[in-house]
Amino acid sequence: MKSIAIYSLKGGVGKTTTCTNLAYCAAQQNRVSLIWDLDPQGAATFYYQLKPKIKGGIGRMLGKKGHLGNFIKETQYADLDVLPADLSYRQLELFLDEMKKSEKKLRRSLQALASEYEYVFLDCPPSLGTLARHIFEMSDYVLFPLVPTTLSERAFQQVYKYFKQEKLDARRLIPFFSRVDRRKKLHLETIHAFSQKYPQTLATHIPNSAIVERMGIQQAPVMTYARSSTPAQAFRLLWQELGSLR
Fold it and tell me: By the 8 A CB rule, do 113 and 1 touch?
């Protein structure tokens, strides 16, 4: 089972839309996939028309007798399930800080699902604490969406520096650009300069589009209601490019 975290220290960069659509792409290839919606806002859960609720909260889910499989919900799409968000995730950092060997607990909890899923996609909250550290350590890739702006680039640099300081494998930190407007010269210049500095940057760009914004109305991945659109094709290409990484 491969674990792919979609993470950003900055909000509003297309993190959840990326997670939602990449998981759908994987499922469409008959790769049995799971989204773990770790953000208490529950946007990924909402996009798949599920309730953001874990009975008993994180205490029951990650307690001694907890098993993630007991809380997973099926979506309306074949080969795609969701482990929903819950408001108790607001206390997840504190919960992990108080738990002995919490990183091993999270890793074992995911590994227990390895026989059922080929991919697990982690929709991560925008924080840089204990949870983020554990996710960085246990994920095969940390996919980092950026908007072509100075603040978004700065957020990536902060996380990249954190990887280096903590002696984490920065090759697993994979940036790509989202909400791109190719009519803007500044966007194109920012993308070029950043890609020169960080050659691991993926070539695929997700465009800034009202079609993507409609996900909130449709409560569905882009490919289900705008299959031939530019954003749908971009998400497919992003998934192909991610799959080519070794």
Answer: yes
